[in-house]
Write a structure and sequence with these properties.
414 residues, mainly alpha, globular
């Protein structure tokens, strides 16, 4: 691992700054929106716009990179991100914020594609698995660090918008000044959705449902916290606990899934998440109970996301895995766009409890569907292809991760 860090630290440092900046703006908008008097419905549109932009960027940016190259695309998108982060505070209106979130989602999608391409090219074949493992850890650590920075100033001011703008700007320095040349970029072949559903109905339905879960958790958690009357410190701790739970449980769940029926693990994890959501809804715990809930929900959602990709790839040849994963990410993106909108509608009708109602319904549907699919199909022959994958990862990182998750490779989870 030390040899990996010596060769990839500029990229990992840049990605860390990126994730801190992105993590701050996601939490900050939910809190600032409440201060500005924006309704839950309006904030749900704002939060949903990011996922729409991210999905759009994943389809358009690869063609941009092929036409003008990594460096120009990276620099152009970087300047837009820094500008948007400042404009949030300058123009606090929900329609403006929705347009800015759409743009920043598009830009971050392109930045991730570029950074992951560079990281993939900079690592040797024998160290690529460790490099990608470090990349996923850095992503989650960046989000957790962002929640700490949320407490250094008043969210009603400008400083908390300036800090992520500066961090995002600094993130480009180690990446663009890296001696590693920009890699050759080739777009990933696409698989039709009909073919993908034929390969794995559970993968398709599950990724759509998890898209809604993720966007509700990561997009609306700060909005929920503001409605609930939590302080900035409590909201940031809640969001940090979600990522911490995902970071801790990804690897043990991945190892276990390589030796057991993945559908059973998906079903059990979803059931656990459903029970925790229901208990939280009816018990109304204090802050420590909410932090435990957040850690469990994050520990459920992150591994299930990776499990669904691994399960789908259990039915495919290596040559089809990247195309299938790209298709699953698109389906997940569709679910993510609808998540905040439905969550916001439920919260406007039921109050803050609508947050847990929506998450619980989706996890209940996934539990039932995973159990039903287990009865309809024999378990595939597993090839130990579980890879730790963050929800913000693009097909570039997923393709590289799957290449290093075969039976003859050393698992990052081991």
């Amino acid at each position: 691992m030390l040899s990996v860090l010596r060769t990839t630290w500029p990229l990992l440092l840049g990605i860390l700054f990126l994730m801190v900046g992105n993590g701050m703006q996601g939490t900050l908008l939910g809190i600032r929106g409440a201060i500005e008097g924006m309704s839950t419905t309006h904030m749900s549109v704002v939060m949903s716009s990011y996922f729409g932009g991210f999905l759009l960027g994943s389809r358009i940016v690869p063609d941009m990179i092929q036409k003008v190259g990594h460096v120009r695309v990276f620099a152009a998108l970087a300047s837009m991100i820094s500008s948007v982060l400042i404009l949030y505070a300058a123009w606090p209106h929900w329609i403006v914020w929705a347009m800015l979130r759409l743009g920043i989602g598009f830009c971050f999608s392109g930045v991730y594609i570029t950074a992951e391409s560079w990281l993939n090219a900079s690592a040797r074949n024998e160290t690529r698995g460790q490099a990608l493992s470090a990349y996923m850890i850095v992503q989650m650590l960046g989000i957790i660090a962002a929640q700490v920075l949320m407490n250094i100033s008043d969210p009603a001011g400008y400083l908390l918008f300036v800090i992520p703008s500066v961090l995002v700007s600094l993130s480009f320095l180690p990446i663009l000044l890296s001696r590693q040349p920009a890699p050759q970029f080739s777009t990933i072949q696409r698989m039709t959705f009909a073919r993908l559903f034929q390969v794995s109905p559970l993968g398709c339905i599950g990724m759509f449902l998890m898209g809604g879960v993720f966007s509700a958790i990561f997009g609306m958690a700060s909005v929920w916290g503001s409605l609930k009357g939590l302080s900035v410190t409590e909201i940031s701790a809640f969001v940090a606990a979600i990522y911490l739970g995902g970071l801790v449980l990804q690897y043990p769940v991945g190892w276990f899934s390589d030796h057991n029926d993945r559908r059973m693990i998906v079903m059990v994890l979803s059931l656990v998440g459903l029970i925790v959501s229901a208990v939280t809804l009816y018990v109304q715990p204090g802050i420590w109970g909410l932090l435990l809930t957040a850690a469990i929900i994050g520990g459920v959602a992150n591994p299930v996301y990776s499990l669904l990709i691994a399960y789908t790839n259990d039915f495919l040849d290596n040559t089809d895995m990247a195309a299938a994963s790209a298709g699953l990410l698109f389906i997940n993106g569709i679910g993510a766009i609808t998540g905040p909108l439905i969550t916001g509608w439920l919260m406007s009708r039921l109050g803050p409890e609508g947050f847990w109602v929506y998450i619980g319904i989706l996890l209940a549907l996934l539990t039932i569907y995973a159990g039903w699919r287990k009865l309809r199909r024999a378990a595939p022959a597993m090839d130990q292809n579980f890879a730790v994958i963050a929800p913000s990862a693009t097909p570039i990182a997923i393709e590289a991760a799957l290449e290093n998750a075969g039976p003859d490779e050393v698992q990052a989870a081991q």
